[in-house]
Specification:
heterodimer; A: alpha/beta; nine-stranded mixed β-sheet; elongated; B: disordered N terminus
Chain lengths: 266, 296
Amino acid sequence: MKRRRSALCFLALGVAFFAACRGDRSETDLTLAGSTSIQPFADRWAEIFMARHPDLGVDVQGGGSSAGIQACKSGACQVGMSSRELKGDEKDLYEIVVARDGLAIIVHPSNPVRGLKVAEVKQIFAGDLTRWGDLGGPDKPITVVTREEGSGTRGAFQELVMGKTRIFRGAITEDSNGTVREIVTHDPAAIGFISLGLVNDQVRALALDGAAATDENIGNGSYKLVRPFLFVSRGEPTGLAKAFIEFILSDEGQALVKEEGLLPVR
Amino acid sequence: MDKPAKKKGGSRLERNDRLVRLALLVVAFSAVSVLLVITVFIVGQGMPIMFRYGLKSFLAGSSWYPSEKLFGLWPMIVGSLAVTAGALVIGVPLGLSCAVVLTEFSSKRVRGIIKPIVELLAGIPSVVYGFIGVIILVPFIRNTFGGPGLSVLAAAIILGVMILPTIISISVDSLQAVPPSYREGSIALGATRWQTVKMVLFPAARSGIIASIILGMGRAVGETMATIMVAGNAAEVPRSLLAPVRTLTSNVALEMSYATGEHREALFATGVVLFVIIMILNTIANATSAKRRKQP
């Protein structure tokens, strides 16, 4: 823990150093740091934003949600990006939801199981529930497909479904949303999780606790597996940060969100 | 030496000769230095964490949860060995029989067709093997034997095929290197061709055949792409041939993209373990082929 904190400080220092090198260009230069899940989208937004304002610079860095929040708190970057909810003393930061990412639990279309309780999903991925027969399906062993350690999608699933429980060791592990979907497409007994935007008609997204995985249910909060993509800052953003966030929340910015398979916030 | 070098055409040639020799030496050393750099880098990045958490918990620990600081490589070590052993069980009998057929039981024309095809097999990229494995082999295993299909068995079969060219071409070479007088003597004593193969050729070409098997083993241990695609990559010691398995190479390739801090170091440590295993195999291969050279 101690090591981790010092690593964070180090990173924050590094970012601070870079920011310092740029001197007083904060009026024309914006630095974002944080979640690697948001980074590719932020890069796209920054690209379009800078094309429109050639005199302004937007610099997007990765590092992970926690590092981004920390860097923002310390003032090393103006805006932190987080793909998880703020917790504890992070909550005094100003947060803006720029997009949402739904997490779908997917099975083969031939699977008669249409929905599960979140608790059942947890038991399946913990390796305690091993047969579809116990869930009203055919009496076949469940093929559990998960993502590799370090993946943001796995992190979100861990947080939203598993809590402190581990995903069991025997789960098949793949390194992209695409391969997880590919395996579930071909294995009638498989179950996996992918980003909601990537669900196609070759797999079925399960309803959870009775709520189908639709934009509507996510909007009214009955479908629970949603993670926010947050931008955080110290106090209400001003100047360039404000302009950039306004651009993201505009129709054009949100159209891009939809295009990339995320859920717009408006 | 230097004085005449400045005088005449012949000595200029000599000087050029020396220059070329020097240049080639530099090239040779640059290849070696790459190995040196890789070794230093991997060991430097991977060793500290192994000692920080203890060698025993690293090599014998059975839980791989880097986010909880649990770095047990035991399932991956077993996985690599299981998959490699499976590949040898499939590849060695097939490869050796093929080599015997090619050298002893086929006409020159047949050999002229089969040998280039076998060599072509070596040129197929591993991702293509993996793809065919996923599309054809995995569903076949799932439908025939049950389980997820992504399994030790699938990986063993794919790797078994992948090491065939190595085993066949080196075995063919060493079988062909057996002096014809051995064969003639054996036949003259009344042995059949099969008896000749079994009792004369195999013992005479033994060390070459062993070297071919060990080189094939090295290829199987090191293969990554095809294994990731068909093995299922569960970080657990497989309980059956139909269970998914993760090898050392898959472990690195699978998690490298998002790994940071100690997780990343642990992946380098995985590389160190792999490196040691490959070194051991290569040393054995060198030792057996050195023995072959000493034989009359």
